[in-house]
Amino acid sequence: MPGRAGLFWLKIFNRMKFKGIIFDLDGTLVNSLHDISDAMNKVLTALNYPTHSYDTYQYFIGSGLRNLVSKALPATNNSDDEIESCFECMVDEYTKICTLKTKPYDGIVELLEKLTSQNIKMAVFSNKADELTKKIATELFPEQFDTAVGLSTEELKKPNPFEAIEISKKWNLKPEEILFVGDSDIDMKTAVNANMFPVGVTWGYRTEEELKASGAKTVINIASELIAIL
């Protein structure tokens, strides 16, 4: 259940009923760690560069695939040209396998069904490439989200709140009527920047301490706890 600080903020924010939820994708709705890692390691292996463990990739995820590529490359082979070349190869490999091992976290499917039955508006906003975000959201959660937005330009990458605010306009809701749910410091900062209610989840790629330090007003440990916030 939400901690004491989270309950304090909920008492304040629940004076206004939440009517929409924006979810992060990787680490929040789905565990995509293995597919992302496998695709990047295949690129590194082809270039005879050192590969990385799943545990290491856990800390590379969250700022977009181009940033992940930069972190995965050796420091001695990290020029802009090398990053761009490897990024293109990585996206090509990842597109082939992006739903091979990627699965929803426990309780997510049931949560989305419950939210749908309550007529809660739902969207996905990810730093993953827009085409891949839409592909994964559509294949794993058909008809659950009316909007799935990924990264189209670096300038709009989270924690830039632009896309989140655009979603609120599409829904005709005030930002403060929307929960922003994510597993990383970037998600919490995005929520704060958009004036939405930041909800951190602990089943993803970051710690509860990092989430709270980045602005999470409540942190949940299992998917069903989100219902209590609503």
Short account of what is shown:
The chain is of the alpha/beta class and 230 residues long. It is 46% helix and 15% strand. The chain has 11 helices and 8 strands.
Could you describe the 3D structure shown?
The protein is α/β, with parallel strands linked by helices and 230 residues long. It folds into 2 domains: 4-31 and 104-229, 3-Layer(aba) Sandwich (Rossmann fold); 33-97, Orthogonal Bundle (DNA polymerase, domain 1), CATH 1.10.150. The protein has helices at 4-13, 33-46, 54-57, 65-72, 80-97, 108-117, 130-140, 162-171, 185-194, 208-213, 225-229; strands spanning 20-23, 30-31, 103-104, 121-129, 147-151, 178-182, 197-201, 218-220. The strands form 2 sheets. Strands 5-4-1-6-7-8 form a 6-stranded parallel sheet, sandwiched between helices. It has a two-stranded antiparallel ribbon with strand order 2-3. Helix 9 (185-194) links the parallel strand 6 and strand 7. Helix 2 crosses helix 5 (80-97) and helix 4 packs across helix 5. The radius of gyration is 17 Å and the shape is globular. 45% of the residues are buried.
Comma- or semicolon-separated keywords:
230 residues; Rossmann fold; DNA polymerase, domain 1; 2 domains; two-stranded antiparallel sheet; 11 helices; globular
